[in-house]
Structures are given as C-alpha cells and as structure tokens.
Amino acid sequence: MAEVADRYRRLSDVFASRIEAVAPDGWDAITPCPDWNVRDLIGHVVEMNQIHLGLVGRKPRRGPTVDEDPLGAFLTTRDQAQEDLEDPAKAAVEFDSRFGRWSFAQAIDRGMCVDLAVHGWDLSQATGQDDSIDPDVLPYLWRSIESIGEEGIRFGFGPALDPPADADEQTRLLAYLGRRA
C-alpha cells in the first residue's frame, strides 16, 4: 500500500502545481472535457476524492469550495485521502464497487491516480502549461485502465480515438481515453 500512497502523492503534487500555475484569467478556459472549464475540472477531481472517501464511510473534511479557492479545495480532499492511504488499516477498508470488492487503496489507485494524471493533462492543455505525464507512470496507467475494463473506462472517458501511426506512449494512452494530443 505504500506504493499506492507514493504514487497518489506524486500525481497529486503535479496536479496541485498545475492548479497553482493557473493564471487569474484562466479559470473559465475550456478543457478537453468539453462540458468543463478549468474550475469545473478541478471540482470534478475534488468531488471524486470526496466520493472515494465516502465509499468507505469517511466524511470528507470541510474546506474551501472550488469557487472560493480551487487549490485549497483540492488540497483539503487530497490531504485526507493521502493520510488514509498512509494508514494501513484505513487503506485496507473494503467496499463493493461496480468492479467488484475493492479496498480504499485500490479505488484510489485505479480511479483517482488515473484521474489525476489524465485530468492533469486536461488542465495543462486548457491553461497552456507543460502537459507531460511522467513516462514512468504510463505503464501503470495502462495496467489500471486494463483492470477497469472497456465498459468501466468508457463510463468515465470518451470513445477511443485512433492515434497517429508514430504516436508516443502518452499520445496513444490519451487517444485511447478520447483525447487528441
């Protein structure tokens, strides 16, 4: 479980740094998720952290709203999830998901870590930041996506696109998740 806690920390640190870098006039920029602007995208990630905490009976901490303070809202839920991942008893709590019986750590690893990487790319695209996904994380992302299955991944992401023939691994992954890189 320490591996999951470390991966979540690294991916959430990148996501937080991208939130910090949003220009004051960048909050309404449209993301590659056409129904979401930057603030909406961050709100989705915050909400997903809250949902994952709730699945194992934890009440999310009160913090600022995304409208008040996007970074503060994200950090509030991120910190609580991170603390729970670092507590072996809390990380091991199980629940019934639509994918079967999962622990909190598995849900964060297969759900939130994928969201942080992909929506971090979305955030970067919308705000003109470096959109690189750590190449060391890409094989893990593929494994996580495969573990969720085609139906599960399409529930949360768009239809797969055909990547260019010479596409790198990041571009192939993003195309599979419905994004043009």
Automatic annotation (TrEMBL):
Signal peptide: none annotated. SUPFAM superfamilies: DinB/YfiT-like putative metalloenzymes (SSF109854). One of its GO terms (molecular function) is metal ion binding. InterPro entries: CHP03086, DinB/YfiT-like, Maleyloyr_isom, MDMPI_metal-binding. Residues 9-123 form the Mycothiol-dependent maleylpyruvate isomerase metal-binding domain. This is Mycothiol-dependent maleylpyruvate isomerase metal-binding domain-containing protein.
